[in-house]
Amino acid sequence: MDAAEVTKVLLGLPGAEEHEGWAGQPCFKVRKKGFVYLSTDESSVMLKALREEQEALVAEDPEVYTPSWASGRFAWLQVDLAAADDEELRELLIEAWRLTAPKFLIAQWDG
Hints:
With 111 residues, this protein is an alpha+beta fold. It has one domain (3-105): Alpha-Beta Complex (Aspartate Aminotransferase, domain 1). Helices cover 36% and strands 33% of the residues. The protein contains four helices and six strands. A six-stranded antiparallel β-sheet has the order 1-2-3-4-6-5, with helices on one face. The protein starts with a helix and ends with a helix.
């Protein structure tokens, strides 16, 4: 999946908006809370995940997944777009949104 496909998936989620991140890169937010950041060279994304999921993915395939930051129950995961499985990446993008979106938007997506 390339950066354009990632953007298409993310903007298809209820309430998701594209903004400019701290280094000028695309940042995706829902209700002003970031959940995915695209690298400036568009080769990777950093996304919100549960800490356990971050640890499992990094252990499973460290060539694709790199831990970025973790605190509390959430962790951030860097994903190499060229090496990632498209379906798994799509699921991770949606899960990052779910971890951030309010319940009414999640219900809208599920409905």
